[in-house]
Specification:
Length: about 120
């Protein structure tokens, strides 16, 4: 009988039970090893880490069909090559609050009635 090879997790864990053990949150600039090359992604990860939304585990499997052109464009913009990294980074950017919208809603500054944009 052929012996089955198990794919070893980078942490050395083998099997689902060990792979799903809670990990300490990753340092800012990483999402389970995700390299950060984009300031917006870095801010998104910082916001999510502050809210406790980052678990540090990559244990949830997601199956989806995506447009290869969109995936390639996102990978290029984010400077990432692996589809899992691109999807994790994209989800982090989508889940983090938009700083500009939050500021705009909170600000009490208003334009004067005689304001004219310089065109």
């Amino acid at each position: 009988m052929a012996q089955r090879k198990h794919r070893e997790h980078p942490s050395g864990a083998r099997g689902m039970a060990e792979a799903q053990m809670p990990l300490s949150p990753p340092p800012l600039g990483s999402l389970s090893g995700l390299p950060v090359r984009d300031p917006a992604l870095d801010r998104a990860l910082a916001e999510l880490a502050a809210r406790g939304a980052i678990t540090g585990a990559r244990s949830q499997k997601v199956s989806a069909r995506v447009d290869p052109g969109v995936l390639a464009a996102a990978a290029e913009r984010l400077g990432l090559a692996h589809p899992s990294d691109v999807i994790n980074a994209s989800l982090a950017l989508a889940a983090a609050p938009d700083r500009f919208k939050a500021w705009l809603r909170a600000t009490t500054d208003r334009l004067t009635d005689d304001f004219e944009p310089a065109l």
